[in-house]
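Example record used in the benchmark description.
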Amino acid sequence: MNSNPNKTGTTRDAQLEQELGVLRRQYEQLREKQVRTEQDMANLTSQLEGLKAQAQAEYGTSDPDELQALLQSKREENEQVVAKYREHVQDIQAALAAVENRVEGEG
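Model output (structure tokens):
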């Protein structure tokens, strides 16, 4: 039989104290993570509001769907401008080739 009834209690107390220490460290880590996450959210919210204001000022809207439609429209305009420029360059190349052919034919 156990001659020291407190020995088992002491071991159990030590285990509980050790577990409590682990739990306290975990709690502190979680609390620090929560604080960082809240700070990140505040920063991101502030950035989002700034970007919305910038979009509103530059494009007249901050609605993502409207901005997407505007972007698509601008892409289509750019494609048309590039096509016209390509045609212009090709016309210049053709005219230059015609001049070169005449010069070579005369020479």
